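Progress note, sequence design subtask.
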């Protein structure tokens, strides 16, 4: 079944009685060629590209809850490719190109909106850093443009330009960046993977990883043992726990990142705006709610909820930048479990166990990376070789010291 405007109209007239299931609900088989642990955006994208790009059809995605129940449904929906360092820059550039064609490829409306992403700067040093970043982005082949205060006042008249502590000096905009509907991305990849023969198995928690003589042979689940020639761990904040099942210790700490949404308001924020001095970011959803967030909670946790001091911190940053927020009522907040690496950059690599692969450490960059992460993880699992845009995301860089510290904040997980 293909979705189309005509199909929506006819189903509306017929009482929506003709829609079929978006994907099957199969029982797990005894054996697969490949298993992907994790039914979030990255895991579903990995399975889809394994089938589409590499012709593998005997694949299963194992999710302990329901599809999209993790971070893919708990983020602030930002899509961008304005990274600075080699390695990160080409990877996120590849991801943005995939985003731009994703709806047509999946035949699913993920509500991708290229409304532009603006990073504000508040000092001469931050301006210099923005110029360097913008030049690096342009040299990579993506778009970046420096904005003056006058241009910002025309585009973002609601900001407080007169604050004395952190005056706004200008901004860096990437016009091709924007937002997408987070859970729709999971649903789109799930539906497309199912149509290619991938088994999407929900409520199937993995409880162990079976190995013999240094080679993976399958997994243990709450629904029984399942054999597999290849296993990919794509479980975000649970990466350390799942890796421990195979006797591995990953260089990852898990932290909570909170996000917030207000009541529905008339359209007022046309872009994604990031506050350079408060690590505050905000956009407006199609429903009218202001969606925003800030720093992680700074302590390790596996709880999908946050603490009140960080709520206050985020609200303070928002009020400093946009005093108009005082009139908005916050409807709800939520927390996602972030898998933080020491350098703030991800891992897509083989492990020391033959046939076992890891995709983890996405820090703040997970949602925007979902298409390229799935593309590169599928390439790695299918060929045994890293994709060219993900070759710097090796696991051994933390042993050799070839780290990619995008923010320059040092080798401390919670600072990224």
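Output:
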């Amino acid at each position: 079944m293909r979705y189309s405007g005509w199909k929506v109209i006819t189903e509306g007239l017929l009482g929506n009685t003709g829609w079929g299931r978006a994907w099957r609900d199969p029982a797990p088989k005894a054996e697969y060629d490949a298993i992907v642990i994790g039914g979030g955006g990255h895991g579903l994208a990995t399975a889809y590209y394994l089938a589409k790009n590499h012709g593998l059809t005997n694949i299963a995605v194992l999710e302990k809850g329901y599809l999209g129940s993790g971070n893919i449904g708990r983020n602030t929906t930002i899509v961008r490719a304005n990274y600075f360092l080699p390695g990160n820059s080409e990877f996120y550039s590849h991801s943005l190109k995939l985003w731009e064609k994703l709806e047509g490829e999946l035949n699913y409306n993920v509500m991708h909106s290229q409304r532009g992403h603006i990073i504000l700067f508040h000092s001469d040093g931050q301006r210099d850093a923005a110029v360097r970043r913008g030049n690096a982005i342009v040299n990579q082949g993506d778009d970046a443009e420096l904005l003056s205060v006058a241009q910002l006042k025309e585009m973002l008249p609601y900001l407080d330009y007169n604050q004395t502590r952190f005056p706004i000096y200008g901004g860096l905009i990437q016009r091709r960046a924007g937002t997408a509907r987070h859970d729709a991305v999971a649903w789109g990849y799930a539906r497309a993977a199912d149509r290619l023969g991938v088994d999407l198995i929900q409520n199937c928690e993995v409880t162990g990883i079976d190995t013999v003589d240094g080679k993976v042979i399958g997994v243990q689940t709450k629904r029984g043992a399942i054999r597999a020639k290849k296993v990919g761990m794509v479980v975000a904040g649970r990466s350390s726990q799942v890796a421990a099942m195979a006797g591995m210790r990953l260089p990852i700490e898990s932290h909570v990142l909170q996000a917030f949404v207000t009541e529905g308001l008339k359209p007022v924020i046309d872009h994604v705006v990031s506050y350079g001095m408060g690590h505050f970011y905000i956009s407006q959803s199609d429903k009218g709610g202001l969606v925003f967030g800030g720093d992680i909670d700074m302590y390790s946790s596996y709880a999908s909820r946050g603490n009140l001091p960080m709520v206050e911190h985020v609200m303070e940053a928002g009020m400093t930048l946009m005093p108009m927020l005082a009139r908005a009522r916050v409807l709800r907040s939520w927390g996602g479990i972030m898998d933080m690496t020491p350098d703030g950059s991800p891992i897509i690599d083989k492990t020391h166990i033959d046939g076992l692969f890891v995709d983890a450490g996405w820090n703040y960059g997970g949602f925007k990376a979902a298409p390229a992460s799935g593309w590169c993880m599928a390439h790695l699992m299918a060929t045994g070789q890293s994709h060219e845009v993900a070759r710097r995301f090796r696991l051994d860089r933390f042993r050799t010291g070839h780290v990619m510290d995008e923010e320059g904040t040092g080798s401390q997980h919670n600072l990224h």
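The chain has a mean pLDDT of 95. Work on this subtask will continue into the next period as scheduled.
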